[in-house]
Design goal:
This protein has 494 residues and is mainly α.
């Protein structure tokens, strides 16, 4: 699944649809299969198979869960050495440029997802069948999801809708203004929310709640606070969601797809790939990579010591907030509290050591025994959970022109009440700060922090090395600019 061609004209799904016989005399044989991209959508199962292919690129979410933390004040890159996954270290130190493997992966993997969704929508009128509208709605959501990832990372990006591009056409497509990309995201999500139901019988599939929640987030990122509040209120008032009672239990396989789940990226825990192709995996690579290096002891499994929480994050939590120890594993404190601490051993990675580990997405012994324990965790990535919806709605109500701080307080205190911490009673700009603080307390370790700091204008104050008017966006990968014929301008100051 790692793409070698310009991302805008990759029709990667074709590889899932075409096979050729292997035979010494293959030149003398008629092709065993004649199905190709142009004659594929001839029955309902073709649309379903293509949709599965479009969902598959969601597996790249593990990388956003890293970068969103490592680029912020929450985590350092870690790992075996500073040259191990060097792109993450560059991002960590705010010295990344247009030649960065991880950023290129974000760019091309999400465009591969766009291409697969476009492939379905390009052929929306081929045939009619029961359930087609739902497939089209899910494909629209997925296209919006991938474009949302692209616009929040890179700003203005090429906008291609309902078609695939050939090799010569890619040089004719320019980066679209951010407003146009968001307009397409909004249109796709509005359509999806009108068609989809609040529940989906297929685990991991998109729902009305997922579409409305992502739409509300897109509005929030554009400072469209009235629309964000209206949209997120619908999720809260009409949807089937509630906060899961056990905050610690949210981060276990046994409690996945609970009442707090709005949209999860589903992982099966199967192998399918390796270190050379993490996107090929059917398991979540993040927990194994985040795990404790050369660990021998109870509860946890061995890992690679990436994405290590900072002292600043640990100290940010009041000692009375139970989310601190659920979010951040203090390894030495943990060892000291065990019945036989002398029997527990681990190693520090050469890429940095803070004494802390991401305790949400971390390999646990209950997950061991899979095809590759380092890479194939079955733990889902919580792309959107109800607590995030409540906090986004609280912020929208607080920041909209006719502020409704009373409603904002209700929402933010629902999140605090779940973990039995003191309610907030502020208002105005202080409430804004309190909501942003609550987002860090509630959502740290989940890949949201960097983008929260950027959209709220707080990044320069909180991130070491962050340069205003530069680091709000990541650079367009230089190889993609080259493949587009040099026609795309680079983001400012790169």
């Amino acid at each position: 699944m790692i793409m070698k061609r310009p991302v805008l004209y990759i029709a990667a799904i074709i590889t899932l649809l075409i096979s050729f016989s292997a035979c010494e005399k293959y030149l003398d044989l008629e092709p065993q299969y004649t199905q190709d991209a142009e004659n594929f959508f001839e029955n309902p199962s073709d649309y379903e198979r293509a949709l599965i292919g479009a969902y598959d690129l969601l597996q790249s979410a593990f990388l956003t869960s890293w970068i969103g933390e490592i680029a912020s004040d929450n985590s350092i890159a870690g790992g075996e050495s500073v040259t191990d996954t060097e792109g993450l270290h560059e991002i960590d130190e705010m010295r990344h440029d247009a030649v960065n493997t991880e950023l290129r992966n974000i760019f091309r993997w999400n465009y591969a997802g766009v291409t697969r969704a476009n492939y379905i929508l390009e052929h929306r009128d081929n045939i009619d069948f029961e359930g087609k509208e739902t497939i089209l709605a899910e494909a629209s959501f997925l296209r919006a999801y991938y474009y949302f990832e692209l616009v929040k990372y890179f700003g203005a990006v090429p906008l291609v809708v309902d078609r695939r591009l050939g090799a010569t056409e890619v040089t004719e497509v320019d980066r679209a203004p951010v407003s146009e990309v968001y307009a397409q995201i909004e249109a796709d999500l509005q359509y999806a929310s009108e068609i989809l139901d609040w529940t989906n019988p297929v685990k991991g599939r998109v729902t009305k709640g997922a579409a409305l929640s992502l739409l509300g987030k897109a509005y929030l990122y554009q400072d469209k606070f009235d629309l964000a509040a209206q949209t997120l209120d619908r999720v809260i008032n009409e949807g089937p969601y509630s906060l899961f009672g056990d905050y610690a239990g949210l981060w276990t396989v046994d409690n996945e797809n609970n009442s707090e789940t709005v949209f999860d990226v589903e992982y099966s825990g199967l192998e399918g790939g390796g270190y050379g192709c993490l996107i090929c995996l059917e398991g979540n690579a993040a927990p194994g990579f985040n795990g404790i290096r050369q660990y021998e002891g109870p509860i946890y499994g061995d890992g690679n010591s990436y994405n290590l929480p900072t002292q600043d994050l640990y100290d940010f939590f009041p000692s009375t907030d139970p989310r601190r120890d659920i979010t951040v594993l203090d390894i030495e404190a943990f060892i000291a509290a065990q019945p036989n601490p002398a029997a527990i051993t681990y190693a520090e990675g050469g890429g940095g050591h803070t004494g802390f580990y991401n305790n949400k997405y971390i390999k646990r012994k209950a997950e061991l025994g899979l095809p590759d324990n380092d890479l194939t965790s079955p733990l889902n990535y919580k792309a959107i959970r109800y607590a995030d919806v409540l906090l986004m709605a609280a912020e929208a109500h607080n920041r909209k022109p006719a502020a409704n701080d009373a409603q904002a307080l209700i929402y933010v205190n629902m999140v605090r009440d779940r973990v039995n911490v003191t309610p907030i009673a502020s208002g105005g700009s202080q409430l804004t700060q309190d909501i942003w603080k609550e987002r860090r307390l509630e959502l740290s370790g989940e890949g949201l922090r960097f983008f929260d700091l950027v959209r709220t204008g707080e990044a320069a104050n909180e991130i070491d090395g962050f340069v205003s008017n530069k680091h709000e966006l990541f650079p367009i990968p230089q190889v993609e600019i080259d493949l587009a014929g040099g026609n795309w301008n680079q983001n400012p100051n790169y």
